[in-house]
Every structure is written in structure tokens, then in C-alpha cells.
Specification:
- This protein is of the alpha/beta class.
- Among the domains are: 162 residues, P-loop containing nucleotide triphosphate hydrolases (Rossmann fold, 3-Layer(aba) Sandwich); 70 residues, Conserved Hypothetical Protein Ylqf, Chain: A, domain 2, CATH 1.10.1580.10.
- It contains 22 helices and eight strands.
- Strands 5-4-3-6-8-7 form a six-stranded mixed beta sheet, with helices on both faces. The chain has a two-stranded antiparallel sheet with strand order 1-2.
- Strand 4, helix 9 and strand 5 form a beta-alpha-beta unit.
Length: 569
């Protein structure tokens, strides 16, 4: 028979002799063919439909809605489950599950040799230590097995020799494991250890930290920046930031570094980027800034900066660096940049400089920023201002004051700290600033300033307290020139300087600008200062970001490029 019985029934003429009319309507949700498993309907709850417009539901959204709708099983009138809820049906007893008889189930999925693993580990270490390279894709290999920590190493003696198989009825050991075999070897071992014994290296009777001098500040004023509230703000900023910017003072960069924060980021947050900004470069000579840049660039990406809304330095370099970090994180809609550092280091001033207006409260005194603050630089870059934090390092009260951690008006007996100012600042600079011809000692210095400025008490006695606070304020605010050199500067480094190197770096750069460079700087500033308030500006910025993606990625290297192993992906 050419046709089946069902087809003959469909083609039979009706009672009136007319041919049957076939319905052209089809169920949209049903599959076209019997063996087809995907329905081609356009229902809004069909996860297999073609998505034609951007406003239609995605496949994941439809599946989630179906999960809400079909979360309960279907029951009959007696309460028996006819159709189980999704992921709640049970296989009947005796169901046999077949596994494809393929050799891939019995072979190794990822194999790597010892030489390749060592090459990978060596190249990986070079990339991590290089401040100008970023690991783009992490490997799936168990690299953590190669990074053993000595503090976590212990002898798993119960895993190798349990108590039951050592001393119990099921003991397998014939004799105890001893370091010596006989009495003579034990005596020789004891005599050798006795001859090598030194009392100074005995940890049981010698405390290494006992000889160290410690400074304890009983005054709560000198514990500024160490409270739990400030450290809580710091950790909130670190957790919310993709890039952490550490701001240091150019006059004393090593003394204002937060080594504790750097170690915390390397140990607990290795996925976050850390960069260093040397602020207040207008207060030190150019050769000092260059020297610190060369030293810090070996550890971290470093930028020299002068915070000023009208006449800034390093603004374009810092914004371009943040744009490169944003290009590295294309999977995120925006990145957050947190600014951390000592009090009075200039964190809020840098944020105001990047925005070209005063968006954060700033002042030349410590502790002006109380809580963290979110500021939008561009549509894809957000800035987070953080209060200044200080990790206790055993600094004396004078060192804490000269670093700008505390406010001078709250210091008692400020004249006790003037001698350190005279030691750090050259005599000719002090005489030039205060209009003095000469002075001998602290008392003579304060007395002459008091008479010159009219800071006198009853009977013509000089007001040492007020004058001392004035000198300390001038020192903190950069009116008295001074800078700190590295401890090994004299032995290992010789810098050939000229007249231009004695000027601040921002003044040298301004004098060297030509007319063509000024035009280029205006163009760069216009691009860097654009703050996105409308969608049109945001789209233009996205185009610029896409153009700069190639340049940003060219300075970074993925793991497969440097590992030396081609099959790590």
C-alpha cells in the first residue's frame, strides 16, 4: 500500500461528497517533526526560540521563570504525583546507567612533565616580580602545590605510622626507629652536639626582641591613624578597589610607605593591582625625584605627581595608567581605584586634581578625611578616598610630628621638637625664610623669631610655645625645604647634577615645554579631564578606550606567552 491507514482516513470524502479541507493552523509550541526535541515556537516562555531583538528575554531568564512556574509537582485528585517537579524525579529501582566504553575515561586528562613545570614556575615568578607585566589568564595547573610554606610544614606521623599498627595487636614494626643503632654512636652524637652548642643561639634562654628599643606613646594623640575605625575604613576601601594607589610624600618616601598594607595585598589580595604615587614633588629637587623613581620602579609601577587643580604635574600619566588597568578588566563595567597612605600625604588633593574641581574635603593638616568617599572620574573609572592610616613602627613623638601625622595645635611642649627641625633643615634656608642673620641653638632661634614676628608675652618674654607651633606648621606644610635620602645613597650611588636638577621637577618640565608640546598637552588634558555627565560623552570615551586597548595590552603578557609551555591553556 502506498499510503498508511491514517492517511486514507484523512483523505476520505465527506458525506456530501466533498473533499476534506486540511487545517493550515499548526501548534506553534509543538515540534515540527516527531523526532525533533527543540520546539521552534516564538512563545515568550520558549527557551529555544530565536532571539530577534535586544529587549526579548534571554535563555537564562526564561529558564528561571519556568523554574518559578513549574516548581511544584503535578498531582491527581488522590494526591499521587503524576509529573514530578524539576530536579525531583526519581529513577525506578533497577535502572541501569550505561557509560560509554571509551578509553578517555581511563586516561590522564592533563599531563605535564617535571621540566615543563619547573620552567613554568620560574617564568611565572619573573612575571609576578616584574612591575610592568600582568598575568592575564590564570592557569588550571595546581601551582599551589609548588608553593609550600614552612610554617605549615609538619610531620604527618599518624598518616604513615598509626598507633594501631605500631603498638597494638596488629603492630607490624619489628623494632623501634632510632637515630642511633648502638650506645657508642649515641655518645658520639651527644658529644658532637655539645661541642657545637653556643649559649647565644639557645632559643629557650635568649629572646631576640629583648634588646630592641621600643617607643610606647602613652599620649593618645600620637596614636592617630591607628584606631579600629580608621583601619575598618581602610579594609573597606581595599575590598572595594580593583586598583590600590599608595600615596607617599616625596620628602620622605620610605618613611611614609605603608609596608603593612603592601604585605597584606601581596599575601591576601594578590589579584589586586598596586601602584605607587610620589606626591609633593614640587618640594624636592629633580634629582631626588628621579632617584626615588628609579628605586621604586623596580618594585611597583611608580608615578611622580604634584597635586594642584590649576598647575598639576603627572596627571596625564596617572590617568593613562588607570585607563590601561580598565582595559585589562573588560569583563567589568567599571573599576574602582582606592587611594591609601599616611595622613597628610595628599590623597584627597590627588582626587580633586584628577576631577579638576574640589570634590573631596582637603586641607594641609592631618585627619581631614574621616570616612571613605566614592567619586566618579569617568563612566568606567571610580575613585575612592580613604582616611590616612598609620601602622605602629616604633617611631618617636618627634618623628610622628615631622611626618605630619598629628596636628601641631594639639601638641604639648612643641619646643621640645624644634631641635630635629634644625637638624633636618639647613641653616641658610631657615635664615632666609624667617629673615634672620644668624642664630645659635634652639632658644636663640625661637627668641629671634618671636621678636621679629611680635610673639611676646607680658614683660617682653618670647612666647616659645606659639613660635614652636608656627615652625612645626611651616615644616609640615613644606615651607622649610628638606628631603630624606636612602640609607645606602652615599655608598652605592653617585648622581651628576646640574642647575636644572636642583629645581623641582614640575618647574623644569614647564620651562622645557615648547609651543607644539603645549598644544599637545591641551589636547591630552581635554581628553583626561572629561567627566561623563551625558551618554554621548560616555560613548565617545568608549571609542577612545577601544582605540587604546592595543597599546595597553601590548605592555602586558599572558601566562601562556611567558611560561614556555604551549599546552597550559
Amino acid at each position: 500500500m502506498a499510503k498508511t491507514r491514517s492517511s486514507l482516513k484523512l483523505n476520505r470524502p465527506l458525506k456530501d461528497g466533498s473533499k476534506p479541507v486540511k487545517s493550515k493552523l499548526k501548534h506553534d509550541m509543538a515540534p515540527k517533526h516527531r523526532g525533533q526535541t527543540f520546539s521552534t515556537g516564538t512563545h515568550s516562555l520558549n527557551p529555544d526560540r530565536k532571539r530577534e531583538g535586544p529587549h526579548q528575554r534571554s535563555r537564562a531568564t526564561i529558564k528561571r521563570l519556568l523554574m518559578y512556574k513549574n516548581s511544584k509537582p503535578t498531582r491527581d485528585k488522590n494526591g499521587k504525583i503524576i509529573k514530578a517537579a524539576p530536579y525531583q524525579d526519581r529513577l525506578p529501582s533497577g535502572t541501569v546507567a550505561r557509560v560509554e566504553p571509551h578509553r578517555k575515561w581511563f586516561g590522564n586528562t592533563r599531563v605535564i612533565g617535571q621540566e615543563q613545570l619547573q620552567t613554568f614556575q620560574a617564568n611565572m615568578g619573573k612575571v609576578i616580580k616584574d612591575p610592568f607585566q600582568v598575568v592575564m589568564k590564570q592557569t588550571k595547573l595546581p601551582v599551589t602545590l609548588l608553593q609550600e610554606k614552612s610554617k605549615q610544614q609538619r610531620v604527618h606521623i599518624l598518616d604513615t605510622e598509626s598507633f594501631e599498627y605500631t603498638f597494638g595487636k596488629k603492630s607490624l614494626r619489628k623494632k623501634p626507629n632510632l637515630a642511633v643503632n648502638d650506645l657508642e654512636s649515641m655518645v658520639a652524637n651527644i658529644s658532637e652536639r655539645t661541642s657545637k652548642y653556643t649559649k647565644d643561639k639557645d632559643r629557650d634562654i635568649y629572646d631576640r626582641d629583648a634588646d630592641r628599643a621600643r617607643f610606647e606613646n602613652t599620649n593618645p594623640l600620637f596614636r592617630a591613624g591607628q584606631s579600629n575605625r580608621v583601619w575598618g575604613e581602610l579594609y573597606k576601601v581595599i575590598d572595594s578597589s580593583d586598583v590600590v594607589v599608595e600615596v607617599v610624600d616625596a620628602r620622605n618616601p620610605e618613611g611614609t610607605r605603608c609596608k603593612h598594607v603592601e604585605e597584606f595585598l601581596r599575601r591576601e589580595k594578590p589579584h589586586k593591582h598596586l601602584i605607587l604615587v610620589i606626591n609633593k614633588v614640587d618640594l624636592v629637587p629633580t634629582w631626588v625625584t628621579k632617584m626615588w623613581l628609579n628605586r621604586f620602579s623596580k618594585e611597583l609601577p611608580t608615578v611622580a605627581f604634584h597635586a594642584s587643580i590649576q598647575h598639576s604635574f603627572g596627571k596625564g600619566s596617572l590617568i593613562n595608567l588607570l585607563r590601561q588597568f580598565q582595559s585589562l578588566h573588560k569583563d567589568k563595567p567599571q573599576i574602582s581605584v582606592g587611594f591609601v597612605g599616611y595622613p597628610n600625604a595628599g590623597k584627597s588633593s590627588i582626587v580633586n586634581t584628577l576631577r579638576s574641581k574640589k570634590v573631596c574635603k582637603s586641607a594641609p593638616i592631618a585627619g581631614e578625611t574621616k570616612v571613605w568617599q566614592y567619586v566618579m572620574l569617568m563612566r568606567r573609572i571610580y575613585l575612592i578616598d580613604c582616611p590616612g592610616v598609620v601602622y605602629p613602627q616604633g617611631d618617636s613623638e618627634t618623628e610622628i610630628i615631622l611626618k605630619g601625622v598629628v596636628r601641631v595645635e594639639n601638641v604639648k611642649d612643641p619646643e621640645n621638637h624644634i631641635q630635629s627641625v634644625l637638624d633636618k633643615v639647613k641653616k641658610e634656608h631657615l635664615c632666609k625664610h624667617y629673615g634672620l642673620t644668624d642664630f645659635n641653638g634652639v632658644d636663640d632661634f625661637l627668641e629671634k623669631i618671636a621678636k621679629k614676628t611680635g610673639r611676646l608675652l607680658k614683660g617682653g618674654e618670647p612666647d616659645y610655645g606659639t613660635v614652636s607651633k608656627m615652625v612645626l606648621n611651616d615644616f609640615q606644610r613644606g615651607k622649610l625645604p628638606y628631603f630624606v635620602l636612602p640609607s645606602d645613597y652615599v655608598q652605592n650611588e653617585k648622581v651628576l647634577r646640574n642647575e636644572e636638577d636642583e629645581k623641582p621637577i614640575n618647574e623644569v618640565e614647564e620651562e622645557n615645554y615648547t609651543a607644539e608640546e603645549e598644544d599637545n598637552d591641551e589636547v591630552v588634558d581635554e581628553e583626561d579631564n572629561e567627566i561623563v555627565d551625558e551618554e554621548d560623552n560616555a560613548d565617545e570615551e568608549d571609542v577612545e578606550m577601544a582605540e587604546n586597548d592595543d597599546d595597553a595590552l601590548s605592555t602586558c603578557s599572558g601566562l601562556s606567552d611567558v611560561s614556555g609551555v604551549s599546552d597550559l591553556a
